Structures are given as structure tokens and as C-alpha cells.
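re: ur question from earlier - yeah i can do the single chain one, its not a big deal. heres the input i used so u can compare w yours
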Amino acid sequence: MAEPRVQFTNVSSLNAEALGEPGQRTFRILASSGTSSATIWLEKEQLIQLALAVNQLMATLPKESATMTKIDYREAPDASSLDFKAGKIVLGSEPTSGMFIIDAHDVEAEDEEDATVRVWADGAQAERFADQA
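and the output i got, formated as C-alpha cells:
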């Protein structure tokens, strides 16, 4: 994976949200880390596929949790606030830390290789997120 512009490594919340009336809804991912936040707007299908991928990835990982290694040195600068529409979302995991990785790419970004934000979530956060989505 290429290096993202911003990383959230100390995630305090990761939520999926739908706004509006059925048939007219918009969808977003809300991530908070320290004093930083990201609002990632996405299509309903993207959110559904991400939730399914999280569940599939969880099923393949060993039940015993890896040592949750802190990776704070990669954390976003204080008071970062992102708000963008995702064109591409990539899910992965980091086996040595046991963390899930969600890379979100801004649909309007000039550099299509680098993610706009990378969110690191532990297994419990990823599972709650998938249930919400």
C-alpha cells in the first residue's frame, strides 16, 4: 500500500451513518482520532461492500488477538479535519499489530495512488463499524 496523506492511528470512534429519508439517503463514515476527524461520504453500495469485507476478513483472522501495537508516530497532525467523497476504499489488515486498515481515496484527488486518509481500527472497532453499516 502506498503511503496516505493523513493517518488516524489512535481512533476513538469509527461509525457508519445514513442521513435522510429512505430512497433519498446519503451515507458517510465518521472517524475521530485525538483532536482530528474525518467525514468520508460514500455510496450505499460502497458502505455495504466495506461491511461485508470487514466481516469476511474477520472470519479469516485468528481468534487470539495480536498485541495491539500503538503506532502513534504516524498520527494525523492535531486538529486535522477532513471532509470528502470517496472514490475508492481499500480494506486491509496489519498482522503484527492485529489492526484493520481502511484507506479512503478522495474522488477529486489528483494523485490516485495515495489514499487521502488511512484509518487504523482494532478488531472491536471494526466489528462495531460493520454491524452499524
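Helices lie at 44-60, 123-132. not sure if urs matches, ping me
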